[in-house]
Structure formats: structure tokens, C-alpha cells
Amino acid sequence: MSAPSRRPEIRRRRTRKEKIVKLRKRLATATAEADRKRIEQKLHRQGLVSPGTPLIKSA
Questions:
Q1: Which of 11, 18, 36, 41 is surrounded by the most beta carbons within 10 Å?
Q2: Burial grade of 29 (CB within 10 A; 0-12, 13-18, 19 or more)
Q3: Are 48 and 21 in contact (CB under 8 A)?
Q4: Is residue 59 in some structural domain?
């Protein structure tokens, strides 16, 4: 696989990783239950795209 064909994949992964980090930070600081639920749903959707290790710890 050549470098030009890998660039979009690398960019996609990096963007996804940054989004997950941002959502995890927002989840840690969220106080309202509605906010926590909405952020957890977003993280869950991101996790469905790439199954494997869960993005949030189940209680």
C-alpha cells in the first residue's frame, strides 16, 4: 500500500482518536445526567464503527 492511499486512512484514525479524547474529557466533567447520557451515546456510536475494546467503562 503506497503512502498516498494511506493518508486518508491515517487522517481518519487521527481525527477519530481526537474526537474520542474530547468526548471522554467532556464526559468526565459533565454533571447533568442528560449531558452524560448524550455523551455516552456519542461514544457508543464511535465504538460501533471500530469494535474491540469498549470506549467507556460499563458500571
A1: 36
A2: exposed
A3: no
A4: no
